[in-house]
Amino acid sequence: MSSLWRHHDFRQLWAAETVSQVGTQVTLVALPILAVTLLRATPLQMGVLTALETAAFLLVALPAGAWVDRWRRRLVLVTADVVRGAALASVPLAYLLDALTLGQLYVVATVVGTATVFFDVGYQSYLPVLVDRTQIVDGNGKLEASRAVAQVVGPGLTGVLLRVLAAPLLIVVNALTYLVSALFLARIRTPDTLPERAARRPLRTEIAEGLAFVVGHRLLRRMVACTALANLGGAMTGALLVLYAIRELGLAESTVGLVFSVGAVGGLVGAVSAARVARWVGEGRTIPLSAVAFAVAAAGIPLASLGAATPTLVVAWFALSFATIVYNVTQVSFRQRLCPPRLLGRMNASVRFLVYGTLPLGGLLGGVLGTALGVVPTLWVAVAVQGLAALPVLASPLTGMRDLPVELDATAEVSPATRG
User: Fold this and answer.
1) Where are the transmembrane segments (predicted)?
2) Hey, what domains does the chain have and what are their CATH numbers?
3) φ, ψ for residue 299 (rounded to 5)?
Protein backbone atom coordinates (compact mmCIF):
# COMPACT_ATOMS: atom_id res chain seq x y z
CA MET A 1 0.00 0.00 0.00
CA SER A 2 1.42 3.39 -0.98
CA SER A 3 2.34 6.00 1.59
CA LEU A 4 -0.19 8.72 2.38
CA TRP A 5 2.53 11.27 1.60
CA ARG A 6 2.06 10.21 -2.05
CA HIS A 7 -1.70 10.76 -1.82
CA HIS A 8 -2.42 14.15 -3.42
CA ASP A 9 -5.67 14.95 -1.61
CA PHE A 10 -4.38 13.84 1.78
CA ARG A 11 -1.32 16.08 1.37
CA GLN A 12 -3.60 19.06 0.71
CA LEU A 13 -5.75 18.29 3.75
CA TRP A 14 -2.69 17.75 5.93
CA ALA A 15 -1.07 21.00 4.76
CA ALA A 16 -4.30 22.97 5.25
CA GLU A 17 -4.84 21.51 8.72
CA THR A 18 -1.23 22.16 9.75
CA VAL A 19 -1.22 25.80 8.58
CA SER A 20 -4.65 26.36 10.13
CA GLN A 21 -3.62 24.89 13.49
CA VAL A 22 -0.52 27.10 13.59
CA GLY A 23 -2.74 30.12 12.90
CA THR A 24 -5.07 29.13 15.72
CA GLN A 25 -2.19 28.88 18.19
CA VAL A 26 -0.82 32.27 17.09
CA THR A 27 -4.27 33.79 17.71
CA LEU A 28 -4.40 32.40 21.24
CA VAL A 29 -1.14 34.21 22.08
CA ALA A 30 -1.36 37.36 19.92
CA LEU A 31 -4.81 38.56 21.01
CA PRO A 32 -3.96 38.57 24.76
CA ILE A 33 -0.69 40.44 24.11
CA LEU A 34 -2.61 43.00 22.07
CA ALA A 35 -5.19 43.37 24.85
CA VAL A 36 -2.56 43.88 27.58
CA THR A 37 -0.11 46.14 25.77
CA LEU A 38 -2.42 48.37 23.69
CA LEU A 39 -5.80 48.22 25.40
CA ARG A 40 -4.60 47.97 29.03
CA ALA A 41 -6.95 45.08 29.83
CA THR A 42 -7.64 44.21 33.49
CA PRO A 43 -7.44 40.64 34.88
CA LEU A 44 -11.21 40.26 34.58
CA GLN A 45 -11.19 41.51 30.99
CA MET A 46 -8.39 39.07 30.16
CA GLY A 47 -10.48 36.29 31.67
CA VAL A 48 -13.44 37.23 29.48
CA LEU A 49 -11.24 37.33 26.37
CA THR A 50 -9.76 33.90 27.13
CA ALA A 51 -13.24 32.50 27.75
CA LEU A 52 -14.61 33.84 24.47
CA GLU A 53 -11.70 32.37 22.49
CA THR A 54 -12.80 28.88 23.51
CA ALA A 55 -16.49 29.25 24.47
CA ALA A 56 -17.64 27.60 21.24
CA PHE A 57 -16.16 24.27 22.34
CA LEU A 58 -18.62 24.33 25.24
CA LEU A 59 -21.58 25.70 23.30
CA VAL A 60 -21.50 24.09 19.84
CA ALA A 61 -18.91 21.28 19.81
CA LEU A 62 -21.46 18.48 20.29
CA PRO A 63 -23.94 19.48 17.56
CA ALA A 64 -21.08 20.59 15.28
CA GLY A 65 -20.02 16.96 14.85
CA ALA A 66 -23.48 15.92 13.67
CA TRP A 67 -23.97 19.06 11.54
CA VAL A 68 -20.68 18.57 9.71
CA ASP A 69 -21.73 15.01 8.84
CA ARG A 70 -24.76 16.52 7.03
CA TRP A 71 -22.93 19.20 5.01
CA ARG A 72 -20.31 19.32 2.25
CA ARG A 73 -17.13 18.86 4.23
CA ARG A 74 -14.70 20.81 2.07
CA LEU A 75 -17.14 23.72 1.96
CA VAL A 76 -17.29 23.69 5.77
CA LEU A 77 -13.49 23.81 6.01
CA VAL A 78 -13.00 26.54 3.41
CA THR A 79 -15.78 28.65 4.93
CA ALA A 80 -14.26 28.30 8.41
CA ASP A 81 -10.87 29.46 7.10
CA VAL A 82 -12.29 32.45 5.23
CA VAL A 83 -14.39 33.53 8.22
CA ARG A 84 -11.39 33.34 10.56
CA GLY A 85 -9.14 35.21 8.16
CA ALA A 86 -11.71 38.00 7.64
CA ALA A 87 -12.44 38.36 11.35
CA LEU A 88 -8.76 38.68 12.23
CA ALA A 89 -8.07 41.10 9.35
CA SER A 90 -10.52 43.52 10.97
CA VAL A 91 -8.18 43.93 13.96
CA PRO A 92 -5.17 45.59 12.26
CA LEU A 93 -7.59 47.62 10.11
CA ALA A 94 -9.31 48.99 13.22
CA TYR A 95 -5.88 49.65 14.76
CA LEU A 96 -4.77 51.70 11.75
CA LEU A 97 -8.02 53.69 11.98
CA ASP A 98 -7.45 54.20 15.72
CA ALA A 99 -10.78 52.48 16.39
CA LEU A 100 -9.67 49.22 18.05
CA THR A 101 -11.54 48.34 21.27
CA LEU A 102 -11.78 45.42 23.65
CA GLY A 103 -15.34 44.93 22.47
CA GLN A 104 -14.07 44.23 18.96
CA LEU A 105 -11.50 41.76 20.31
CA TYR A 106 -14.31 39.98 22.15
CA VAL A 107 -16.33 39.65 18.93
CA VAL A 108 -13.30 38.50 16.92
CA ALA A 109 -12.36 35.93 19.57
CA THR A 110 -15.92 34.53 19.54
CA VAL A 111 -16.14 34.33 15.74
CA VAL A 112 -12.69 32.76 15.34
CA GLY A 113 -13.36 30.27 18.14
CA THR A 114 -16.67 29.17 16.63
CA ALA A 115 -15.18 28.71 13.16
CA THR A 116 -12.29 26.75 14.69
CA VAL A 117 -14.71 24.24 16.24
CA PHE A 118 -16.27 23.54 12.84
CA PHE A 119 -12.85 23.29 11.18
CA ASP A 120 -11.46 20.90 13.80
CA VAL A 121 -14.47 18.59 13.63
CA GLY A 122 -14.69 18.97 9.85
CA TYR A 123 -11.17 17.91 8.90
CA GLN A 124 -11.48 14.70 10.91
CA SER A 125 -14.82 13.91 9.25
CA TYR A 126 -13.37 14.67 5.79
CA LEU A 127 -10.49 12.22 6.05
CA PRO A 128 -12.54 9.01 5.43
CA VAL A 129 -13.91 10.61 2.24
CA LEU A 130 -10.41 11.16 0.84
CA VAL A 131 -8.45 8.03 1.75
CA ASP A 132 -8.95 4.28 1.66
CA ARG A 133 -10.55 2.64 4.70
CA THR A 134 -7.29 0.89 5.59
CA GLN A 135 -5.48 4.27 5.66
CA ILE A 136 -7.82 6.04 8.09
CA VAL A 137 -5.86 5.15 11.23
CA ASP A 138 -2.58 6.20 9.60
CA GLY A 139 -4.16 9.45 8.38
CA ASN A 140 -5.60 10.27 11.79
CA GLY A 141 -2.20 9.69 13.34
CA LYS A 142 -0.51 12.10 10.94
CA LEU A 143 -3.19 14.78 11.41
CA GLU A 144 -3.07 14.48 15.20
CA ALA A 145 0.73 14.66 15.15
CA SER A 146 0.64 17.86 13.09
CA ARG A 147 -1.93 19.34 15.50
CA ALA A 148 0.29 18.52 18.46
CA VAL A 149 3.33 20.09 16.78
CA ALA A 150 1.28 23.17 15.82
CA GLN A 151 0.41 23.67 19.49
CA VAL A 152 4.15 23.96 20.04
CA VAL A 153 5.27 25.84 16.93
CA GLY A 154 2.45 28.42 17.08
CA PRO A 155 3.40 30.05 20.40
CA GLY A 156 7.08 29.80 19.53
CA LEU A 157 6.54 31.43 16.14
CA THR A 158 4.56 34.17 17.88
CA GLY A 159 7.47 34.76 20.23
CA VAL A 160 9.94 35.06 17.36
CA LEU A 161 7.71 37.35 15.28
CA LEU A 162 7.04 39.63 18.25
CA ARG A 163 10.71 40.55 18.13
CA VAL A 164 10.29 42.10 14.68
CA LEU A 165 6.56 42.88 14.40
CA ALA A 166 4.12 44.78 16.59
CA ALA A 167 1.16 42.73 17.83
CA PRO A 168 -1.35 44.31 15.36
CA LEU A 169 0.90 43.46 12.41
CA LEU A 170 1.30 39.93 13.74
CA ILE A 171 -2.47 39.54 13.42
CA VAL A 172 -2.08 40.20 9.66
CA VAL A 173 0.31 37.23 9.41
CA ASN A 174 -2.17 35.20 11.40
CA ALA A 175 -5.05 36.04 9.05
CA LEU A 176 -2.94 35.03 6.06
CA THR A 177 -2.37 31.53 7.49
CA TYR A 178 -6.10 30.85 7.21
CA LEU A 179 -6.20 32.03 3.61
CA VAL A 180 -3.26 29.76 2.77
CA SER A 181 -5.14 26.88 4.41
CA ALA A 182 -8.21 27.61 2.23
CA LEU A 183 -6.02 27.55 -0.90
CA PHE A 184 -4.67 24.09 -0.03
CA LEU A 185 -8.23 22.83 0.50
CA ALA A 186 -9.28 24.23 -2.88
CA ARG A 187 -6.67 21.96 -4.52
CA ILE A 188 -8.39 18.77 -3.34
CA ARG A 189 -9.65 16.82 -6.37
CA THR A 190 -12.17 14.45 -4.76
CA PRO A 191 -15.72 15.70 -5.46
CA ASP A 192 -17.28 17.42 -2.47
CA THR A 193 -20.59 15.57 -2.36
CA LEU A 194 -23.52 16.14 -0.03
CA PRO A 195 -24.09 13.17 2.36
CA GLU A 196 -27.20 11.09 1.75
CA ARG A 197 -30.22 12.39 3.65
CA ALA A 198 -31.56 8.85 4.05
CA ALA A 199 -28.58 7.95 6.27
CA ARG A 200 -29.36 10.68 8.79
CA ARG A 201 -30.72 9.92 12.22
CA PRO A 202 -32.10 12.42 14.72
CA LEU A 203 -29.38 14.89 15.76
CA ARG A 204 -29.85 14.04 19.43
CA THR A 205 -29.35 10.32 18.73
CA GLU A 206 -26.06 10.84 16.89
CA ILE A 207 -24.72 13.20 19.55
CA ALA A 208 -25.73 10.85 22.37
CA GLU A 209 -23.99 7.85 20.77
CA GLY A 210 -20.60 9.55 20.69
CA LEU A 211 -20.96 11.04 24.17
CA ALA A 212 -22.10 7.73 25.66
CA PHE A 213 -19.03 5.96 24.28
CA VAL A 214 -16.65 8.49 25.82
CA VAL A 215 -18.33 8.58 29.24
CA GLY A 216 -18.89 4.83 29.35
CA HIS A 217 -15.33 3.70 28.57
CA ARG A 218 -13.38 3.04 31.78
CA LEU A 219 -10.03 4.29 30.46
CA LEU A 220 -11.25 7.01 28.13
CA ARG A 221 -13.33 8.78 30.78
CA ARG A 222 -10.32 8.93 33.11
CA MET A 223 -8.11 10.46 30.43
CA VAL A 224 -10.86 12.93 29.56
CA ALA A 225 -11.28 13.86 33.24
CA CYS A 226 -7.52 14.45 33.55
CA THR A 227 -7.35 16.54 30.38
CA ALA A 228 -10.45 18.57 31.26
CA LEU A 229 -9.15 19.47 34.73
CA ALA A 230 -5.68 20.23 33.36
CA ASN A 231 -7.24 22.53 30.76
CA LEU A 232 -9.27 24.24 33.49
CA GLY A 233 -6.09 25.07 35.41
CA GLY A 234 -4.19 25.86 32.22
CA ALA A 235 -6.85 28.33 31.10
CA MET A 236 -6.71 30.07 34.49
CA THR A 237 -2.97 30.47 33.98
CA GLY A 238 -3.34 31.43 30.33
CA ALA A 239 -5.81 34.20 31.13
CA LEU A 240 -3.25 35.92 33.35
CA LEU A 241 0.12 34.82 31.98
CA VAL A 242 0.85 37.74 29.66
CA LEU A 243 -0.46 40.25 32.20
CA TYR A 244 1.60 38.55 34.95
CA ALA A 245 4.79 38.56 32.89
CA ILE A 246 4.52 42.16 31.75
CA ARG A 247 3.01 43.88 34.80
CA GLU A 248 3.96 41.70 37.78
CA LEU A 249 7.40 40.54 36.63
CA GLY A 250 8.19 43.64 34.57
CA LEU A 251 9.28 41.70 31.50
CA ALA A 252 9.44 43.30 28.08
CA GLU A 253 7.27 42.03 25.23
CA SER A 254 10.37 40.63 23.53
CA THR A 255 11.24 38.70 26.70
CA VAL A 256 7.73 37.26 26.82
CA GLY A 257 8.32 36.22 23.22
CA LEU A 258 11.57 34.53 24.29
CA VAL A 259 9.67 32.55 26.94
CA PHE A 260 7.22 31.27 24.35
CA SER A 261 10.07 30.48 21.96
CA VAL A 262 11.91 28.39 24.55
CA GLY A 263 8.63 26.72 25.44
CA ALA A 264 8.30 25.80 21.77
CA VAL A 265 11.68 24.10 21.93
CA GLY A 266 10.53 22.12 24.97
CA GLY A 267 7.40 21.07 23.14
CA LEU A 268 9.30 20.05 20.02
CA VAL A 269 11.62 17.94 22.17
CA GLY A 270 8.54 16.37 23.67
CA ALA A 271 7.02 15.71 20.24
CA VAL A 272 10.09 13.95 18.86
CA SER A 273 10.77 11.98 22.06
CA ALA A 274 7.20 11.02 23.04
CA ALA A 275 7.35 7.66 21.24
CA ARG A 276 10.72 6.88 22.81
CA VAL A 277 9.45 7.81 26.28
CA ALA A 278 6.39 5.61 25.77
CA ARG A 279 8.57 2.65 24.73
CA TRP A 280 10.89 3.17 27.71
CA VAL A 281 8.30 3.81 30.43
CA GLY A 282 5.35 2.03 28.84
CA GLU A 283 2.58 3.65 26.83
CA GLY A 284 0.00 3.31 29.60
CA ARG A 285 2.24 4.55 32.43
CA THR A 286 3.45 7.53 30.38
CA ILE A 287 -0.01 9.11 30.65
CA PRO A 288 -0.19 9.46 34.48
CA LEU A 289 3.53 10.22 34.81
CA SER A 290 3.40 13.05 32.28
CA ALA A 291 0.24 14.39 33.96
CA VAL A 292 2.16 14.66 37.24
CA ALA A 293 5.11 16.23 35.42
CA PHE A 294 3.13 19.08 33.88
CA ALA A 295 1.52 19.85 37.24
CA VAL A 296 4.96 20.11 38.86
CA ALA A 297 6.30 22.22 35.99
CA ALA A 298 3.33 24.61 36.25
CA ALA A 299 4.44 25.53 39.78
CA GLY A 300 7.48 27.27 38.30
CA ILE A 301 5.27 30.00 36.83
CA PRO A 302 4.18 31.60 40.13
CA LEU A 303 7.59 30.75 41.64
CA ALA A 304 9.10 33.21 39.14
CA SER A 305 7.66 36.03 41.26
CA LEU A 306 10.11 35.15 44.08
CA GLY A 307 13.20 36.02 42.07
CA ALA A 308 15.23 35.19 38.93
CA ALA A 309 12.01 35.79 37.03
CA THR A 310 13.18 35.26 33.46
CA PRO A 311 15.22 32.04 33.91
CA THR A 312 12.60 30.53 36.23
CA LEU A 313 9.77 31.27 33.81
CA VAL A 314 11.81 29.99 30.86
CA VAL A 315 12.63 26.68 32.61
CA ALA A 316 9.05 26.26 33.81
CA TRP A 317 7.57 26.89 30.35
CA PHE A 318 10.09 24.55 28.71
CA ALA A 319 9.28 21.74 31.15
CA LEU A 320 5.53 22.38 30.97
CA SER A 321 5.55 22.31 27.17
CA PHE A 322 7.63 19.12 27.10
CA ALA A 323 5.40 17.25 29.57
CA THR A 324 2.16 18.47 27.97
CA ILE A 325 3.15 17.35 24.47
CA VAL A 326 4.34 13.94 25.70
CA TYR A 327 0.98 13.55 27.45
CA ASN A 328 -1.02 14.73 24.43
CA VAL A 329 0.75 12.57 21.87
CA THR A 330 0.46 9.47 24.06
CA GLN A 331 -3.15 9.86 25.14
CA VAL A 332 -4.37 10.83 21.65
CA SER A 333 -2.76 7.68 20.24
CA PHE A 334 -4.36 5.64 23.02
CA ARG A 335 -7.70 7.35 22.48
CA GLN A 336 -7.81 6.69 18.73
CA ARG A 337 -7.15 2.99 19.24
CA LEU A 338 -9.78 2.66 21.96
CA CYS A 339 -12.50 3.96 19.61
CA PRO A 340 -14.16 2.02 16.77
CA PRO A 341 -13.45 3.82 13.45
CA ARG A 342 -17.17 4.47 12.77
CA LEU A 343 -17.37 6.56 15.97
CA LEU A 344 -14.14 8.56 15.54
CA GLY A 345 -15.84 11.78 14.41
CA ARG A 346 -18.44 11.84 17.16
CA MET A 347 -15.94 10.58 19.74
CA ASN A 348 -13.58 13.45 18.87
CA ALA A 349 -16.44 15.99 18.98
CA SER A 350 -17.52 14.64 22.38
CA VAL A 351 -13.98 14.71 23.74
CA ARG A 352 -13.51 18.28 22.49
CA PHE A 353 -16.74 19.30 24.21
CA LEU A 354 -15.62 17.78 27.52
CA VAL A 355 -11.94 18.75 27.55
CA TYR A 356 -12.10 22.10 25.73
CA GLY A 357 -15.39 23.06 27.38
CA THR A 358 -13.45 23.75 30.57
CA LEU A 359 -11.27 26.34 28.81
CA PRO A 360 -13.80 29.22 28.85
CA LEU A 361 -14.74 28.33 32.42
CA GLY A 362 -11.06 28.42 33.43
CA GLY A 363 -10.51 31.71 31.64
CA LEU A 364 -13.43 33.35 33.45
CA LEU A 365 -12.42 31.83 36.78
CA GLY A 366 -8.86 33.08 36.32
CA GLY A 367 -10.10 36.60 35.60
CA VAL A 368 -12.50 36.64 38.57
CA LEU A 369 -9.97 35.20 41.03
CA GLY A 370 -7.21 37.42 39.63
CA THR A 371 -9.36 40.44 40.46
CA ALA A 372 -10.44 39.17 43.89
CA LEU A 373 -7.26 37.47 45.15
CA GLY A 374 -4.52 38.94 42.99
CA VAL A 375 -2.64 37.48 40.05
CA VAL A 376 0.02 35.42 41.88
CA PRO A 377 -2.38 33.71 44.35
CA THR A 378 -4.63 32.82 41.42
CA LEU A 379 -1.69 31.22 39.61
CA TRP A 380 -1.13 29.02 42.66
CA VAL A 381 -4.80 28.01 42.63
CA ALA A 382 -4.31 27.03 38.98
CA VAL A 383 -1.31 24.88 39.94
CA ALA A 384 -3.46 23.11 42.55
CA VAL A 385 -6.14 22.40 39.92
CA GLN A 386 -3.52 20.92 37.59
CA GLY A 387 -2.26 18.76 40.44
CA LEU A 388 -5.80 17.43 40.98
CA ALA A 389 -5.99 16.69 37.26
CA ALA A 390 -3.45 13.89 37.61
CA LEU A 391 -5.54 11.96 40.15
CA PRO A 392 -8.02 10.31 37.71
CA VAL A 393 -5.19 8.70 35.72
CA LEU A 394 -2.98 7.97 38.73
CA ALA A 395 -5.84 6.03 40.35
CA SER A 396 -6.49 3.96 37.23
CA PRO A 397 -5.27 0.78 35.51
CA LEU A 398 -3.00 2.97 33.37
CA THR A 399 -0.34 3.09 36.11
CA GLY A 400 0.25 -0.65 35.79
CA MET A 401 -0.38 -0.90 32.05
CA ARG A 402 2.67 -0.91 29.83
CA ASP A 403 0.83 -1.39 26.52
CA LEU A 404 -2.81 -1.26 25.44
CA PRO A 405 -4.29 -4.76 25.82
CA VAL A 406 -5.43 -6.32 22.53
CA GLU A 407 -8.96 -6.79 23.84
CA LEU A 408 -9.29 -2.99 24.29
CA ASP A 409 -7.75 -2.11 20.90
CA ALA A 410 -10.62 -1.30 18.49
CA THR A 411 -8.13 -1.19 15.60
CA ALA A 412 -6.65 -4.62 16.33
CA GLU A 413 -8.09 -6.00 13.10
CA VAL A 414 -6.24 -3.31 11.12
CA SER A 415 -2.74 -4.11 9.91
CA PRO A 416 -0.09 -2.52 12.18
CA ALA A 417 1.55 -1.02 9.10
CA THR A 418 -1.45 1.27 8.65
CA ARG A 419 -1.50 2.70 12.15
CA GLY A 420 -0.58 6.33 12.85
Assistant:
1) 46-68, 74-97, 165-186, 223-246, 258-277, 289-308, 314-332, 353-373, 379-398
2) 4-187+203-404 (1.20.1250.20)
3) -65, -25
